[in-house]
Amino acid sequence: MTDPLYELLVPYFEGSPSSRPVPDSNDPVVSKYLNRLTTLHLSSLTSQESQSLAQSSHSNFLSIQSLSSRSNAAVIASADHFSTLHETLPLLTEEVNQLQTEIPKLDQSAVTFSTTYSRSTENEMLDRRKRALLMERNADRLSDILDLPTLLSSAIASSAAQGATSVTNYATALDLYSHIKRLHLLYSGSPLIDSIYAQTESAMQDLKSHLITSLRGQNIKLAAAMRTIGWLRRVAPELESTKNGGGNTEGLLGYLFLVCRLSTLVHTLSALEPLRQLADQESQIRLRNNSRPGGAGKINGNAYHGGQQSERYVKKYIEIFREQSFGIISLYKSIFPASTDEPTAEVQTPFKSASTGQTKPKQDMSTIPPSALATFPSHLTDLLFDTLKEYLPNVQDKTSKESLLTQILYCAGSLGRLGGDFSLMVAMLDAGGADVSHSSEDDDDETGEGEWVEVMKKHRELAGRLEALASGVGAGKGVDKGGSLRVKSRP
Known about the structure:
4 strands; two-stranded antiparallel ribbon; 22 helices; mainly alpha
């Protein structure tokens, strides 16, 4: 329904000379304004409404001006885009059609990718990526593993520089070696672990050499020797294993220890080389005089001096031999107590089994390796007596010779406490040197044969007295001239 006020005002709009169109009656703004006019007084319409309309028009003009100033660039850009819209729409339509055509291909590629690289299927590229990711996550561990050979070589080098006293470095090296061996057992198929293990084995060969060298030290103590043997047991377990039964429970370590200490003994004795050269000169003089017809016993005293240089050499030789040989065997018995308590080989006789009735053959004694200490004292004795047989005949002074024989008996007694007594072999020395010790055969029968016997008697007599004093014999007992105990009667 048309507003009556609107119908009254329409003729004025139509007869107006301006080109503005007639407002639409259905316009909400027109309806709102007409409703507002009906609420005003007539005085307000004639006096205030025109000012209000002018003010509103001016306010709207300022708003439109401000809006145009702010939106000038956007309006111009919109106008430009609108001018190219007739060209853009066909291109958009073409691209949309192309996208519709390519979507099935994209879907097919996505399906193929998901099928190819699915976790449920095996794929070489995925395996390589997994290995690469695994290596990236364990980069620190791999770096530590790669540093193991370097750490082991450093520990071995520092141990070699510090000697047998470097307990911590040797223990660290052995712990590293044990860790690498465990890795090699766990990951035996890994080329990296195999390479590290090969480098470790090369370094362990150096460690074995250093440990064996430390066994050849001059004044090695029991604690250091036991530690070194313990380390060798860990580094080279094959040296301790025995294929056959018998008394050889220490394996090859016992042989190795004795060989190293024997090398040290020989090296120590080689320090007497200047004295040995002087003794060799006396031996040459003695042999040259003995080779002359009737020259036995007629020795030039000015050139020979009664074998003084030989006496000095043999005396020093026996002192070193006594100290070193006793130390070698005592160290061996302390380090390998089991091998010294058992016999070198058990004799097994044939017997019949109670269950089968068959006779079991006895064990072949040739297959049982002897203990390392079984023949070592005899080898030491041969080493000593070879020297004595060569240089003891040079000593012409009876007192000096008896002193040397007494010193030999003390050495024999020292080894005798460890099971290597060779005192009875002294007779062989006198038998070999009797032809040059005296000037006639009668003197040989009277003194030469009894020289070692007399020394032996004196030695046993003195040993008996010392034993009696050491055992705490009271005042009621004594020792007679023969070396036996006698009891004094109390008043």
